[in-house]
Specification:
Layout: H1 11-17, H2 22-30, H3 34-43, H4 50-58, E1 64-66, H5 77-87, E2 93-98, H6 100-113, E3 121-128, H7 139-149, E4 154-161, H8 164-179, E5 188-196, H9 200-203, E6 213-221, H10 225-234, E7 240-244, H11 250-260, E8 266-269, H12 273-281, H13 286-290, E9 296-299, E10 320-322, H14 331-352, E11 359-363, H15 365-373, E12 381-385
Helix pairs in contact: 3-5, 6-7, 10-11, 14-15
């Protein structure tokens, strides 16, 4: 566990007696967790709010407020309120993990303490463990808080549950929550572990001209390819489309993406073994080669992982490779082959440019252990553990 900074230094002596300038104080504050920042703010008296103003103007508007670490117990509920009271107007980046009962509580805190149009990035993890509890969204409250989410550029919605009934209740309500928001500035939407029952046009009811990234992980979609075509007309600036989950007729979806967005920057999908061989490996990987600017690839179960290294020669601009959802049958051998392929690509790039090029690889724990054991790969690969 990371040690709190206030446990290692005398905060009051450092801040009051040493006379540090604002730049140095800012660097110190950025390394503190939220609880430490609250302690610092409590050092100020009502006539001298130097620390509060400095933190709000130069720190709080740049850091992620991860309430997973704050609201885990009832005893810490007062801390949640204190965080919103002290930093609410400066907040831009929020991450919360809530139960359905606490979801409305979160909305009220946002409305009471945050500034309209200021939130830029929001992640909501909805945890529903009571399968007998029916939950309905408070639409009146949502309408009141809508101006506070209007400035969002990145939105992530995830559901976490142990029961099928809870899963259905969560996803349907989260779906309604999202579809009723007006997000004129949204750039990236990420959904994880959801079942979408509405059509694409119902889920994205307005023209999303600002949307550039759509990332679906373990998401079940309705089989409405025609709706998907209409939806693509509403997102003229789409650059990344990732879907891992059950999506029938993936081949048709991918073809429509290619027709509309030949310069797609990121792509990933799930399909049957037969479809994947037809889409990806048919005609000497001609399908992926048609995307002229592909830099990010996501692979899911069903992809013939023993041939994954063959992809690199057809996607020479690869910057991000996600394989964490793949089960590599010959783990050490295949990880070594992938590392060697990435090394060849990076070395070729470095010959053309002096910059330190690397490829970001998203891996699971077993894959991570294998890549770490390959010390030579560290120079060319930046590992992201999922």
């Amino acid at each position: 566990m990371e040690k709190s900074l206030s446990n290692t230094i005398d905060v009051e002596k450092l801040l009051i007696e040493s006379g540090l300038n604002e730049d140095v104080l800012e660097n110190i504050f950025k390394r503190m967790d939220v609880r430490d920042l609250l302690k610092v703010c409590d050092l100020d008296d009502e006539d001298n709010r130097t620390f509060v103003n400095l933190i709000n103007n130069r720190v709080a508007n740049k850091i992620l407020f991860d309430f997973d670490k704050i609201q885990s117990t009832k005893q810490n509920k007062w801390t949640v309120t204190r965080v919103f009271e002290t930093f609410g107007l400066a907040m831009k980046f929020l991450k919360v993990s809530v139960t359905p009962h606490a979801f409305n509580y979160f909305l009220r805190k946002v409305m009471a303490y945050c500034a309209p149009d200021r939130l830029i990035k929001l992640q909501i993890d909805l945890n529903h463990t009571n399968q007998n509890h029916e939950w309905e969204l408070d639409y009146e409250l949502l309408q009141q808080t809508e101006p506070y989410f209007r400035g969002l550029e990145q939105l992530t919605l995830r559901t976490i549950t142990l029961s099928n009934r809870g899963f259905h209740n969560q996803t349907s309500t989260m779906q309604r929550f999202f579809s009723r928001l007006h997000l004129p500035n949204i750039k990236c939407v990420t959904l994880q572990r959801m079942r979408l029952t509405e059509s694409w046009m119902d889920f994205f009811p307005n023209n999303q001209t600002s949307l550039t990234e759509l990332r679906f992980y373990n998401v079940r979609l309705a089989e409405r390819v025609n709706d998907f075509s209409e939806f693509l007309a509403q997102v003229p600036n789409l650059e990344v489309f990732i879907h891992t989950g059950s999506l029938a007729r993936m081949h048709e979806v991918a073809e429509k993406l290619l027709q509309k967005f030949p310069n797609l920057r990121g792509f990933g999908g799930t399909a049957t073994d037969h479809e994947m061989h037809g889409i990806v490996f048919g005609n000497a990987l001609n399908y992926l080669q048609k995307f002229k600017n592909l830099q990010e690839l996501h692979f899911h179960n069903g992809f013939p992982c023993e041939n994954i290294r063959s992809v690199f020669q057809y996607v020479p601009n690869i910057r991000v490779l996600s394989i964490w959802q793949l089960e590599l049958r010959k783990l050490p051998v295949e990880c070594r082959h992938i590392a060697n392929s990435i090394k060849e690509i990076v070395c070729a790039r470095r010959e053309r440019s002096p910059h330190r090029h690397v490829v970001r690889v998203e891996v699971n724990q077993h894959q991570y252990n294998e890549f770490i054991a390959n010390q030579k790969a560290a120079e060319y690969i930046h590992l992201i553990l999922n």
